[in-house]
Design a protein that fits this description.
- The chain has a seven-stranded mixed beta sheet with strand order 1-7-6-2-5-4-3.
- It starts with a strand and ends with a strand.
- It is globular and about 45 Å long.
- Strand 6 (123-129) and strand 7 (138-144) form a beta hairpin.
- It contains four helices and seven strands.
- The longest helix is centred in the first third of the chain and has 14 residues, at 12-25.
- It is α/β, with parallel strands linked by helices.
- The chain has helices spanning 12-25, 42-52, 89-93, 96-100, and strands at 3-9, 31-35, 67-70, 77-81, 105-109, 123-129, 138-144.
- The chain has a single domain, classed as Rossmann fold.
Length: 145
Amino acid sequence: MEIVTRYETNSSKETYSLGVRIGESAAPGSVYTLIGDLGVGKTVLTQGVAKGLGITGPVSSPTFTILQVYDEGRMPFYHFDVYRIGDVSEMDEIGYEDCFYGDGICIIEWANLIEELLPEHYTEIVIEKNLEKGFDYRLITMTKH
């Protein structure tokens, strides 16, 4: 059964704050997929999640390293950016299963590129712009699978 929740934000600050709430309520073993065009706010939301987990250091998208691990919060935080994955077998090389099925939480940007590897239960977060509602408007849809 899928549970869908929608949020509307009108600034990067509001998107960040939503991320903080996600991080504060996240349980060990949670996996979140992030879907959205370039520049839509995936990294801003992720930075909020990190803050909600108690991570104080800088958080940036691991576009070239694929995985960034943050250990200083209340649980490990695994931030994936799989945009540059050429083949899903590359995920084996970085030990994705330890992250997906571990005691931390995962955020996977561009997760639609590795759909076959996703665990049975995860939360999909889709961020969309709507310029008719303003440059900074975002519709954020969270679907629990």
